[in-house]
Amino acid sequence: xxxxxxxxxxxxLYVTIRRDELRQLKDERDQLQQEVLRLRSHLQAHLxxxxxxxxxxx
Length: 58
What we know:
52% of the residues lie in helices and 0% in strands. The chain is an all-alpha fold and 58 residues long. It has a domain at 15-44.
């Protein structure tokens, strides 16, 4: 007993954003990307340590 579903085309949503809001979002994105890079670097350094080494305190 399967039900056939009609497929609809995707809908487009239009939004308005002020320039200052866009700038703020871009700044937040850049900060988050930097944080991701820092965390990846920290994780890689942790993974590269020998297993008998004590982890560095942050």
